[in-house]
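Audit log entry. Action: structure prediction of a protein-small molecule complex. Ligand: pyridoxal-5'-phosphate. The ligand was supplied as SMILES and no pocket hint was given, so placement is left entirely to the predictor. Protonation state taken as written. Sequence taken verbatim from the request; no trimming, no tag removal. Recorded inputs:
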Amino acid sequence: MIYCSNPFFQYLSYDKEIQKSIIRVLNSKQYVLGNEVSSFENEFAKFIGTKYSIGVANGTDAIEIGLRSLGIGNGDEVITVSHTANATVSAIESTGANPVLIDIEEDYFTINSDKISKAINKNTKAVICVHLYGQSIDLDKVKSICKKKNIYLIEDVSQAHGALWKGKRLGSFGIFATFSCYPTKNLGAIGDAGIITTNKKFLEKKIKMIREYGWVKKFDSNCFGRNSRLDEIQAAILRIKLKKLDRDNEKRRKIADFYSKNLDEKLLKTPKIKKNSTHVFHQYVCISSNRNKLMSYLKRNGIYAGIHYPRPVHLQPFYLNKYKNKNLAITEKISNKIISLPIYPELKISEVKKIVNIINKF
Ligand SMILES: *Cc1c(COP(=O)(O)O)cnc(C)c1O
């Protein structure tokens, strides 16, 4: 059986080191916001190329807390896409702000920057750009729109840890950026974890307050706060995986390259890589005009492809009324055709060959 992703195999490739790090935390006597979290925060900031990185409980909280640190909330609007993890949208809602959903580019599955300006009004505070599937949005275009319209650029990098735009790491372009380290992500914990990166000192300070009850120091709350701390054990595990991230992303790229060179283009449209972008293939997403049949056929052959995502946010039951008259034609069109083929660093090229052979006989 071959699954779309496989965090257990990732664990097995670093099992001894991971076990050792867990024992280290157990013996450290410091179980919350200790040395592992602060060391990981320093290492991750250095890796991304920002001044600060702040660990939080998960990727959804990272977005919510980041927005709150900018004072975004009731009555404000935040632009993002409907073709994303529900988390991006629900995090905006958690602050009291209103998500405004716009369409994507058919070729790259990411935000259509031509649609941003029209969605901006006096209540608009920010655009959250989702670097979906491991590839950057067009940061030059979106950055210049945000600058011109005086709104914040925020990056949701939960699917693109380590990816680049013009040689620079994603997560260093916006006012802040957020990462999920859910187990299947390119940088995955063995449980929940999230990170915010920023170059702004005042945001780092505010985010650290919000993630712990609004405390400016122990027992003194100075603003609204929550509990959204990154766990010591998860931080210790992430420190190990961060060291291997570039190498693991390179393995993903090799797999993607093999797929793209060998899949029959008459059966599947393979993903395009943008000029200026270094893709890290969180997912390898193709377009199939016969998607559901292809998926059942693959399943019969022991291969489990995925769909990311089968139903755009604005068509989910909870959102149907709110976004009833939305024109998100490309989002809706591709959601019936996208298929994510298995990809993870431990997937062997011999297995990729097998998958390609099976697909090409479909
Ligand atoms: C995974 C993901 C999130 C949410 O992360 P959690 O850690 O599950 O809260 C947010 N945005 C995107 C694009 C994601 O892929």
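Audit: result stored. The CA atoms of residues 212 and 301 lie 49 Å apart. The chain has a mean pLDDT of 97.
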